[in-house]
Specification:
single chain; 7 strands; N-alpha-acetyltransferase 60; 2 domains; GNAT_dom; acyltransferase; alpha+beta; binds coenzyme A; 7-stranded mixed sheet; Aminopeptidase; EC 2.3.1.259
Length: 258
């Protein structure tokens, strides 16, 4: 059971962010982030203009605050071909309509941290992305010193794919960022050099097995002329099964690395 410092038992529920959240949303962003967001951004969030969002509220929060935001996630759908992660996708240029969900902001007010609220909000965003058939990934940037957030994304199985030098400029100082990505709908990255080598080895192995099986089949044909006389029909199904097994293991090996 969730426990808040010396108070009630929270009952967390999730809902879309709406116009009545404007003031609180702006205040929490101001409290949680070193970056100032423009008023227009908050208006776009609460009116759902080009931005999708999820809010968390504590239904058991006293003093009329039971519908007040205590956490949020905002995101935007972007075209994969226009994004900075295009090269990290298994991109089919004939399908230029592929999209991504880019997480813009994520936050939970201090007293509600470590209850799994951010994890739930991220899961919502992933579910949302996975339900868009042409969406290939969810991705985001995180400032390099934000250990709680980095821990969270790793825990949620996001992959850290890049470190971007001096990505942020805050109060006159540059900070690096990490780029995290979570693939959906088969949008996995193209092969790394190591994966390519392993793929080649797998193909070489399956090619060798195929050649061996052909040789073996030729040998068997010679034998079967003799065997047919004794056990007619029993050899052919056995050989077919063997071929299916070889094909399966070849395909399975391929899938692992592609
Ligand atoms: C990052 C943040 C959204 C996490 O919210 P949350 O609701 O507390 O997250 P969850 O409860 O779902 O999960 C938190 C995970 O981070 C871990 N964590 C929390 N504080 C941590 C810390 N200081 N160092 C390392 N890990 C930490 C928790 O232990 C938990 O992991 P676990 O389940 O393995 O224990 C919240 O700390 C926050 O709002 N921070 C300020 C805004 C921010 O940095 N947003 C992210 C911008 S990219």
């Amino acid at each position: 059971m969730l426990k808040l410092k010396g108070s009630h038992h929270p009952v967390i529920s999730y809902r879309p962010i709406r116009p009545s959240d404007l003031e609180v949303l702006e205040r929490i962003h101001c409290d949680l982030f070193p970056i100032r967001y423009e008023t227009e951004f908050f208006h776009n969030v609460v009116h759902g203009r080009d931005i999708v969002s999820w809010g968390a509220v504590d239904r058991n929060r006293p003093n009329g605050h039971s519908d007040e935001l205590i956490g949020f996630l905002t995101a935007r759908i972007v075209m994969a071909k226009d994004s900075e992660v295009e090269d990290l996708l298994r991109f089919d240029s004939s399908k230029s309509d592929q999209t991504l969900v880019y997480i813009l902001t994520l936050g939970v007010v201090d007293s509600y941290r470590n209850f799994g609220i951010a994890s739930s909000l991220i899961r919502e965003a992933i579910k949302y992305a996975a339900n868009i058939s042409n969406c290939r990934a969810v991705y985001l940037h995180v400032i390099s010193y934000n250990n709680p957030a980095i821990h969270l994304y790793k825990k949620m199985s996001f992959q850290c794919v890049r470190r971007l030098h001096a990505f942020y400029f805050i109060n006159g100082q540059h900070y690096d960022s990490y780029l995290f990505i979570y693939y959906v709908n088969g949008g996995r990255s193209p092969c790394s050099p190591l994966e390519l080598v392993m793929l080649l080895v797998t193909y070489a192995k399956s090619g060798f097995k195929l050649a061996a099986s052909r040789l073996w089949r030729n040998e068997d044909r010679k034998i079967s002329k003799w065997a047919k006389c004794k056990e007619s029909g029993s050899l052919l199904p056995t050989m077919q099964n063997k071929r299916i097994l070889i094909a399966d293991s070849g395909a399975g090996g391929g899938c692992q690395f592609v």
